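Thread: Modeling a multi-component assembly for a lab meeting

Hi all, long-time lurker, first post. My supervisor asked me to bring a structural picture of a complex we are working on to next week's group meeting, and I have zero experience with this. I have the sequence lines for every component (778 residues in total). Could someone generate the structure of the whole assembly? Inputs are pasted exactly as I received them:
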Amino acid sequence: MDDFVFRNPTKIIFGKGKEKSVGKEALAYGCRVLLHYGGGSIKKTGLYKTVITSLKEAGIEVTELGGVKPNPRVSLVREAVELCREKRIDLILAVGGGSVIDSAKAISVGVPYEGDVWDFYSGKAAAETALPVAVILTLPAAGSESSDGSVITNEEGMLKRPYGSSLLYPVFSILNPELAFTLPKFQIACGIADMMAHVLERYFTNSKPVGLSDRLLEGTMKNIVDYAQSVLINQEDYNSWAEIMWSGTLAHNNLFGVDRENDWASHDIEHELSGIYDIAHGAGLAVIFPAWMKYNYRQDIDRFAQWAVRVWNVEEDFWSREKTALAGIQKFEDFLRSLGLATTLEGVGIDESRLEEMADKCTNGDTITKGGFVKLNKDDVLNILRLAL
Amino acid sequence: MDDFVFRNPTKIIFGKGKEKSVGKEALAYGCRVLLHYGGGSIKKTGLYKTVITSLKEAGIEVTELGGVKPNPRVSLVREAVELCREKRIDLILAVGGGSVIDSAKAISVGVPYEGDVWDFYSGKAAAETALPVAVILTLPAAGSESSDGSVITNEEGMLKRPYGSSLLYPVFSILNPELAFTLPKFQIACGIADMMAHVLERYFTNSKPVGLSDRLLEGTMKNIVDYAQSVLINQEDYNSWAEIMWSGTLAHNNLFGVDRENDWASHDIEHELSGIYDIAHGAGLAVIFPAWMKYNYRQDIDRFAQWAVRVWNVEEDFWSREKTALAGIQKFEDFLRSLGLATTLEGVGIDESRLEEMADKCTNGDTITKGGFVKLNKDDVLNILRLAL
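Re: Modeling a multi-component assembly
Sure thing. I ran the full set together rather than chain by chain. Output:
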C-alpha cells in the first residue's frame, strides 16, 4: 500500500427534495451567490424555480450565469470571473452535472487570481485561494461534486485540460436522485461509462498489495453494473438512481484510490477526442477504455483475471489466465454496448484522419508519457486509437 | 437507500514514519498541546521520544497526561479538563488506541463546557464547541481516529456510555502501520474483532436497497479476514498491517453505513460486560456478536444468506436458505476462534451471576429497547447473554 494523505471535506446532503434546503446551507458562506448552470434544462424541470425560491427565502442576493456547454469553455469562465468580482460574490452554486461544476470550480480559483485562469490548466500556476463552490447535482457521472478536480476546454486549439487542487472540493453537494429522472437515455449511458472509468483508472495499478481498495473498487463496479439497466429502463426508479448516484460520487471522491498509483491515460486520450470532436466525455471513454485494455492487459494478467472473476463473474480458466483476463474485457465491452454506447471510433463518428494529431497533442509532441499502470508514448497512444477504429 | 448527511473532515496521514511530522501538523492549531497517552508503552517503543522531539522542534509547549486505562475513566477526563483550562491548551494530541482517543475526545468537549463532562454521556447535554483533537494511532481497532464517537466509563456504577457529535472528528490522524508491530497478540485479536463488529453493526439493517454499502461493507470484511492471520503470525509484516489498519479506519468512519439504519445492540450489550468486568471491548464483542446473530438471524434470513455467500464463501444451499445463513454464522465464529478469542462468556471468565443485572442496565430497567435491525427489550438481552454462556 502506498503512503497517502486524504481529506475530503465536502458535506454530502443526500435524499428526496434536499435541494429545497439550499438557501439555508448557502447562507453559511455569505449572502451573495452566483447561480451557475447549463443550457436551461433546469428551467424546464422546475429545479431553477425551487432553487431561486430557496435562496431568496434565505435572504440571498442571486446573480445568474447560465450557458455552460458540455466540455465547458474557458471563455465563459473568464466572463464569470469578472462578474463575480463586480458583484462581490461569496459562493458559486453549480446546478447541473460535471460541466457546470467544473466551470464553477475554474471560476472559484480564477476570481482571487491576478493572472488568467487558464494558467492553472496549462500548468503555469497553482491556486493559493478560492471562492467556495457548492453543488446541486443533476447528472450522476463526473463525480466532480466531491472531487478535487476540474476539466476545462480552451477554444484556442480546442485544448481540454484538467486541474486538481484541494481548494476545489465543493463545500457542500446536494444529491437528490429524483433530479436524474428526466435525463435523456444517452446522457445516462455516458454518465455510467464515466463513473465506471473513474473506478477503472484507479483499479489498474502496479501498487501491491492493495487488498482493501481492490475490494472497494470492485464493489463499486459491481453495484454500477447491478443498477445500470434499471435506471435506463425505468427512469423514475428512485432506489436504483440512488444506487447509481451514490456510486458515481464514491467512484471519484478518491477515498478508494488514494493508497495506490492510478493510471488516467484513458481520460487523457479521451480529452483529445472530446476536445477536437466535442463528443460527450462518457461516449469517448466507452471507445477508449476497451482499446486501452486490449493494448495493455499483458502488463498484469493476474490483475485483469482478478477483475474478470470478481467483477464480471467470469469462471476462471485454470489453464489460461490470459483467457480469463480477455473474457473480462469482453464482458466490459458487452456491458458498455448494453447501455447503447458505441465502443469504436467509427461508432462515435470519428475516422482515422486526425488520429496522429490527437496522439501528438496528448503526448505534447511525444515529449511526455501518459498513464501510471503503463507509460504510453505517442506511438502507444496512436496504436490504442487505431485499435479503437 | 435512506436519506443522509455525511461529512468527515479528518485528515488522514498514512505511511511509514509519518509520526515524525506531528509537530508541523499540530502547529496549525496552536502552540500549546496536551499529549495524552495510556500506560506508558509508548515510552518503551520510543514513540514518546519521537513525538516529543517533533513537537518541541516545531516550537510547541507540551503538557503531558498519561495513564489512560482501557475502558477510559471519566475521573481522568475531569482531571484533564482542569489541566487544559489551566494551561490554556490549543490541541489535544492522543497517542494510542481507542481508549486514549476517546478520552481525548471527552476532554475536548469538556474543556469549553460549564457543567460536568459526564452530562454528554448521560444524555443530559449536547456539545456546542470543542477543542481540536489529533491522533497518532498505535492500535488498529476502535476506528475512533476518524469517527465522531467516543465511549467513556463512569466508575460510579461502572457505567460505560457512548457520545457522538460531529465535533468529535479528529482534525488529523497519523496512521503508521509500523506502530502496530509491537502489540501483544491478544490486543491484535481484540482489535480485529472490534473492527469486524463495526462493519457488522452497519451490515445488519432493514433499509432496502443498500446495494453499494452492502458491497463496501462486504469488501471490508473480506479484507479483514484476508489479512488477519498475517498480522498475528508475522507481526512485522508492514503491508498486512497497512491493510488491517486502513480497514479498521474505514470500518468506522461511517461512510459505509450512512445510508442505512444501523443496529449497535451488540455494542450496547458488550458495554455492560466490559463496564462491569473490565474486559477488553473486542473480547466482549467476540462473545456477544455470535450469540446476537443466532438469536436474530430469522429477522432477515436472506440478508444472512447473502452475507454467508459473499463474505464467507459459503456455497449456497438452494433448498435451505436457513442452512446457508447458519453456515455463515458458523464461519464467523470459527474466524473469531482462529484469532485465539473465546466466543462464550465462560471463555472470558463471566458466569451467570450478573446476567440479569447487565440486561437491566442495558435497557435502563426495561424502559428502552436496543438495536435497529431487531429491537431488543430486557428479556431479549438476557436471552442473548444466556445463549452466550
